[in-house]
Amino acid sequence: MSHYIQGQGRTQVTLFPEALDDFVPQDNPVRVIEAFVNELDLVNLGFRRTKPCHTGRPGYHPATLLKLYVYGYLNRIQSSRRLERETQRNVELMWLIERLTPDFKTIADFRKDNAKAIKNTCRTFVELCREMNMFTESMVAIDGSKFKAVNNKDNNFTPTKMKSLIERIEKNIDVYFKQLDQADLGIRTDEENIAIEEKITWLKKRIAELKEMEETVKQHPDKQVSTTDPDSRLMKTQGMTRMVCYNVQSAVDTKHHLIIHHEVTNTPDRGQLCNVAKEAQTALNKKDLTIIADKGYYNRPDIKETLDNGMTALVCKGLAGSEGKGIFTRSSFKYDQSKDVYICPAGNTLRHAYDTVEKGLEHKCYYNHIACRDCLIRSQCTKSKREPRRMKRWIHEDEMEQMQTKLKAKKEIMLIRKQTVEHPFGTIKGWMGATHFLTKGFRNVSTEMSLHVLAYNMKRMINIVGVNSLIVAMQA
Questions:
Q1: Strands 242-253 and 139-148: what pairing?
Q2: Is the CB of residue 437 less than 8 Å from the CB of residue 445?
Q3: Which residues on neighbouring strands pair with residue 156, listed in sequence order?
Q4: Is pLDDT of 310 > 60?
Q5: What is the DSSP letter of 52?
Q6: Which of 5, 7, 36, 469 has the largest count of CB atoms under 10 Å?
Q7: How many whole angstroms separate alpha carbon 389 and alpha carbon 182?
Q8: Burial state string for 227-254 with b = 16 or more CB within 10 A and e = fewer than 16
Q9: Are 346 and 339 spatial neighbours (Cβ–Cβ below 8 Å)?
Q10: What is the CA radius of gyration of the chain?
C-alpha cells in the first residue's frame, strides 16, 4: 500500500475526540433545516405533543421528527424504515437530531398524525419567500400532474371493465361445459372431468363476486372503485395511457419557479382553475395576478369566475368539437359585435333569434333559415338536411374572445407556462423515482405531497440565495 494516501486506523484512539459539528460545514443545507424548524411556532401550526406529559415514557419532540422528515425529503429518503437506518449511520442526521434514533413506527406515526400541521409548515415557508420579495412578478402558472397511487390497475374497477371481466369468465364457463359434454365419448379420464367441474365451481363463485362488485361500481358517485386506495382514480395520463393516480394541482411563480400553492385531487384539470388561483392570491397577498394555464383548464364559467376575482386569466382554447368531422368549425364564423350578428363562411348574416339556457349558462342563438336552405356549401356547414346551422353564443363570450386576443399577441406566454410548471413536477418526480406515493388516502397523500413541496421550495431557495443568506432571513 506504499505510495498511496493512507487512511486512519479503525482502532486508533484520539486524545481530543472530534465534535459532530466539525463534520458539518457552515454552508451545509442541513443547517437551513435546523434554522427553519427552530424558528417555527409548532403550537400555532398545529403539531401534536408540543407539551410533554409528566407521566409515562418521554416521547420525541415534534421539532426533532419534523427535521428528520424535511431532511429525508430533501435527500430523496421518504420511507420511514430508510429514515430509521439513516439516523444510525448518517453524520448529517446525527448532527441534526443530536444522535437520536427513533424507530420507523414513531417516524411514520408523526407524518400520519400531523397532516394539517405539516401543510401549514409548507405554507409558512411560502410566506418566508414572500417576505424575502421572491414574488415581485404577479404572473402565476397553474397546472396539474398525475402521480401514481399505491392502488394497482388490477384493483381498480369501472363499469366497462366489470362488463369485460364477466363476459370473459362466462365464455370460459361455456368452454368447460362443452368439455364436460364430451365426457361420454371417453376422451377424458374421470380425474380430468373432476378438475373441470372444480374450475367451473370456482368460476361461478368468481362471477358472483364480480357481479357484486359491479353493483358497487354502479352505485358509486364516480362510477369507479379502487380497493387498495379508495380515494385514487383511474385517469388518462399521456396519449391513451391510463393510470390509477392522483392529480396534483400547483400554482408556480414564473420568476423563480417556486410552488406557491398545491392541492391533491382525484379529478381532471377542467374546473379547478379558479380555486387554485384564489389560493395563490391568498398565499401571495395579491389580487391582480396574471394566471396562465393550458387548454385542459378551458372552462368558460371557471375562467369568468377567475376574472371576477380581479385576476387576468390567459388560458388557451382547445379545438372545436366539429374539428375533423368535415364541417366548418366555430372559428369559421365571424362575429360582428357592433351589429350583434354572425357572418357565415358563405357570407350570409346570422341574426339573433332567441335566448336559451344550456348547462346553467345563458346563450344567444343565431341563425338564418332562408339563407341556409339555399346555400351552395350547406353540406360543409351542417349534416342536418332540414335544420339550419345555429350559432350559440354565451352572454359573456366577449371576455373569452378578449382573452384569446391577448394570447395571440403574447405567443411566448404558453412557452413560459411550460417552462414554469414542468420544472417542479419533473424535479419532484425525479426525487421520488419510478414509484408511487407511499401512503393512501387524501389526508396522507396530501401530507406526503406537502413534504415534497417544502423540500423542493427549500432546495430552490438555497440555490437562489445561498445557505447563509437564507438562515439570516429565517432568524430575522
A1: antiparallel
A2: yes
A3: 226
A4: yes
A5: -
A6: 36
A7: 63
A8: eebebbbbbeeeeeeebbbbbbbbbbbb
A9: no
A10: 31
Cβ atoms < 10 Å from Cβ of 209? 10
Residue 365, all three cell numbers: 342563438
Report the half-sphere exposure of 157 (CA within 13 A, side-chain side).
22
Give Dmax (Cα) for the chain: 105
pLDDT surpasses 50 at 324: no
Amino acid sitting at position 194: I
Give the Cα separation of 75 and 459 in Å (integer): 10
> Three cell numbers at 255?
420568476
User: Positive or negative, the Cα torsion across 128, 130, 132, 135?
Assistant: positive
The x, y and z cell numbers of residue 48, run together, are 401534536
Ranking 6-10, 120-124, 129-133, 275-279 by mean pLDDT, the lowest is 6-10
- Which amino acid makes up residue 6? Q
Sequence-distant (6+) residues with CB within 8 A of 321 are none
Cell of 418: 411550460
Kindly give the residue spans of alpha helices, DSSP state H, lying in 54-142.
62-74, 80-89, 91-96, 104-113, 115-131
Report the C-alpha gap between 405 and 392 in whole angstroms.
Answer: 20
Provide the pLDDT for residue 184. Answer: 58
Q: Roughly what angle, to the nearest 10 degrees, separates helices 80-89 and 104-113?
A: 130
Pairing of strands 139-148, 290-293: parallel
Give just the sign of the alpha carbon dihedral 186, 189, 192, 196. positive
Distance CA 361, CA 188 (A): 68
Dist CA 446 CA 425 (whole Å) = 15
Q: Record the cell numbers describing residue 263, joined without a space.
A: 392541492
Q: Which three cell numbers stand for residue 47?
A: 403539531
Q: Contact, 33 vs 67, CB < 8 A?
A: yes
